[in-house]
Amino acid sequence: MTVVAIDGPAGSGKSSVSRAAARALGFSYQDTGAAYRALAWTALDRGVDTEQPEQLVALLRDFPYSIGIHPDDYFVRVGATDVTDAIREPRVTAVVSAVARVPEVRAYLVELFRSVIRSSSTPGIIIEGRDITTVVAPDATVRILLTATEEARMARRSAELSTESAAKTAQQLSSRDAQDSKVVDFMNAADGVVTIDSTDLDFDQTVSAVVDLVRTSD
Length: 218
Ligand SMILES: Nc1ncnc2c1ncn2[C@@H]1O[C@H](COP(=O)(O)OP(=O)(O)OP(=O)(O)O)[C@@H](O)[C@H]1O
Ligand SMILES: Nc1ccn([C@@H]2O[C@H](COP(=O)(O)O)[C@@H](O)[C@H]2O)c(=O)n1
Prior knowledge:
One of its GO terms (cellular component) is cytoplasm. The structure is a single chain. This protein has helices at 14-25, 33-45, 53-59, 90-100, 103-119, 132-136, 150-160, 166-181, 203-216; strands spanning 2-7, 28-31, 65-67, 76-78, 81-82, 124-129, 142-147, 194-197. The chain is of the alpha/beta class. The longest helix has 17 residues, at 103-119. A hairpin with an 8-residue loop joins β3 and β4 (76-78). Strands 2-6-1-7-8 form a 5-stranded parallel beta sheet, sandwiched between helices. The structure holds adenosine-5'-triphosphate (ATP) and ligand L45E5XJ5. Adenosine-5'-triphosphate (ATP) binds at residues 8, 10-17, 33, 156-157, 160, 198, 201-203, 206.
């Protein structure tokens, strides 16, 4: 199976580009940030203090997470609850980095991500996040760092969020990258990782860059 690993900072287009590229290639698509977000949502739902690592680790004993990996049937569930939209709420985004910096949480989710890759029945899968090219799937067939200037990423994020001011959106994106960067390096391409800088590309051009790279890797 072809495994395509994509990392990058917040708002670089990882989810949207990966999903569209997977559709074009007939591949599955795994959004790993969704799992960290779903665990953060679960913590808030159960009144767990997200600054207390041991309480977050305890949550893993009862974390019935599931994700849709078909690009046309994307969903995120915790048990029977569909949290696809809820995990994108600002209150979840505000605490997700605290959840993601707990080593036991990361170890548990890395194994979960690998089991989802193994469960895929398509000829390939695109998996995106922050540590996919380096930790989750360092042996992936194609490894990409998808990036764009902070200015471009902020502008794209502001354009899709009508509930937050542009200044607040920019501040949140920058602070989340700063916190996440302390845990994994997704700003610099590791050896063998190809950088795609989408600052001056439109969405379709970025998807084509990924698809072309995968096709030429055969
Ligand atoms: N090359 C591009 N040109 C213009 N807009 C783009 C491009 N790539 C992505 N976008 C848009 O940027 C926004 C952010 O993309 P997306 O949510 O996929 O980023 P992300 O890296 O997954 O972010 P996060 O890590 O915060 O979840 C989306 O509205 C998407 O359509
Ligand atoms: N491989 C990953 C993926 C995500 N994270 C953490 O989850 C947060 C949400 O990710 P999005 O891609 O949905 O924005 C992100 O800010 C990281 O804290 C991670 O650590 N590793």
